[in-house]
Amino acid sequence: MPGPRLKGVRQREARRARKARLHKLDYSRKTYGKRTIFIPYMDDHGYAMAAAMRAGGVEARQMPMSDEDTILWGRKYTSGKECYPCIITTGDFLRQIHSPGFDPDRSAFFMPTAFGPCRFGQYNKFQRMVLDELGLEDVPLVLLDQDKDFQGDVKNLGADFRKLAWTGIVFVDTLQKMLRETRPYEVHKGECDQLYEKYLRQCEQVIEGRGNLAALAREARSTFEGIAVDRSRARPRIGIVGEVFVRCNQFTNNFMVRKIEAQGGEAVLPPFEEWVNYIGWSRKADAKIARHWKRLLVEKITDLVQGREKRKILNQFQGAVRHFFDEPPSDNVIELALPYLDPAIRGEPILSMGRCVEYVHDGCDGVVNLHPFNCMPGTIVNALLTKFQTDHDMPVLKVAYDGLEQATEMVRIEAFMHQCRERFEARLRAAGNGAGAGIGGAIAAARSGR
Ligand code: SF4
């Protein structure tokens, strides 16, 4: 039996070996050419990013949306104290590992990482330990740093990865906005979902083949506008905020958007672009603090190029999205949140609070905060929402997720939607009585039947 000293040495060595196996991005064919990089599912934007990697010669695949098997595998290898997104992404890795035909010699896993105020940066360390425990020491866990190494990491993905992935994100964001604004009113049930799937698949193909995504955007827009809709009954719009993973991954939030729609509402979600903008905003703020002017300049140039590329896609959708068509810069969202939080507190709370105020301005009639159980930023937002609720007389629903069935979830959603409908109808009545001067977009939209 080894003494405590020897045990300490062995633990130190194991730690060092694990660290060495956490790979920085180096996607040269020499390194990863023979391996498929599996990306855990967060949202459909991952398909576009995987396609952009494939365009650069890397065999990347986004794994399918998480499911019950994900939870079973994730729970088996976690203690219950981990953040829910960590359980889910680990579960997705394990589901892939146990799927037929998995070849450890031809596989690698992908995981973004960051420094910052919470546990996200620890996911990959934990997942490395799990892979090692399974005897998969040689399966690389490839990291993408969201912070100071971001520019270098992204560069390693290929000369035009950034442009391809970014335009893909803008495309999917806008397609999702059209989907959520049209589906609640479609006459033929399922038509919107079908078209959305079709254009998502085509988006992958176009990106991978470096084709004309703007032309596809034009086509998607006109097809969506051709869908038969019945808008004779206006619906209250419900703004969703919360932790980015749980908010985006429909399985982890028990398909909240569809539940809101089934209850007579129309759901609004921040686009994925919000997070891309915010991590850029954080990098710029850090560069200023460190007086790293070169890094700041690179970020500013990146913003200009991204803005130009975004317009090429967005221009094709002009007029097809009624609300939140063009995502504002992070500074604007943060400014709206200032009555609730100081921007020095990094992470999602400031975005969630800014977005809540934006929802008020845009005429939403309810706000939902989705967050993992015990999530620190999610808990901060819950606390601040109490003041927000009073300030704006707005119904608020707070839902925590941990992968377990929640017996009262549906009752709570129904009660919340009832409150939202009442608020919406009261505003409509007030507008009808001439008392609605200054009331936001929902009333105008409802009155014009859009
Ligand atoms: S945001 Fe919440 S869920 Fe995500 S790492 Fe931080 S504490 Fe965990």
Outline of this structure?
The protein has 450 residues and is of the alpha/beta class. The protein is 55% helix and 10% strand. Among the domains are: 13-154, Rossmann fold (3-Layer(aba) Sandwich); 236-271 and 327-447, Rossmann fold, CATH 3.40.50.
Topology overview:
Layout: H1 4-20, E1 22-24, H2 29-32, E2 36-39, H3 45-55, E3 60-62, H4 68-76, H5 84-97, E4 107-113, H6 123-133, E5 141-145, H7 150-155, H8 161-182, H9 191-208, H10 213-225, E6 237-242, H11 244-248, H12 256-262, E7 266-268, H13 273-289, H14 293-317, H15 330-337, H16 348-361, E8 366-372, H17 376-392, E9 396-401, H18 409-432, H19 441-447
Parallel strand pairs: 1-5, 2-3, 2-4, 4-5, 6-7, 6-8, 8-9
The structure holds iron/sulfur cluster (SF4).
Provide the descriptors you would attach to this structure in a database record.
5-stranded parallel β-sheet, 4-stranded parallel β-sheet, binds iron/sulfur cluster, disordered C terminus, 450 residues, Rossmann fold, alpha/beta, globular
In one word, what is the shape? globular
The helical percent reads 55-70%
CATH class of the domain at 236-271 and 327-447: Alpha Beta
CATH architecture assignment of the domain at 236-271 and 327-447: 3-Layer(aba) Sandwich
Number of strands: 9
| Series of secondary-structure elements, N-terminal to C-terminal | HEHEHEHHEHEHHHHEHHEHHHHEHEHH
- Spatially, the strands of the biggest sheet line up as 1-5-4-2-3
Average pLDDT across residues? 89
Q: Quote the CATH topology of the domain at 236-271 and 327-447.
A: Rossmann fold
Structural class: alpha/beta
Can you count the helices?
19
Subunit arrangement of the protein: single chain
Radius of gyration: 23 Å
Q: CA-to-CA gap between the ends?
A: 75 Å
Bound molecules: iron/sulfur cluster
Major sheet: 5 strands, parallel
User: Which spans have pLDDT < 50 for at least 5 consecutive residues?
Assistant: 434-450
Approximately what portion of the residues adopt beta-strand conformation? Answer: 5-15%
